Amino acid sequence: YIEKAKPAAHEAFFHRAQSYQATGKYENAHKDIKRAFEIRPFDAEVLTLYSTILRDLKKYAEAEPFARQCT
Question: Which of 1, 9, 61 lies closest to 34 in space, CA to CA?
């Protein structure tokens, strides 16, 4: 199971979230990027993808704080 592989688990969740996003499975992408964020909350790539996925889900207000943290 992915979570048992911490600290590298965030990479697995991150890459799977990217794959889900690329195939339009935004809810699944959201679940995985949220887990990557829980492991690495200050990772710029995680924050950027989290913001993008939330925008894909049209959750613009939720996406804004993540986007601000990336800059």
Answer: 9
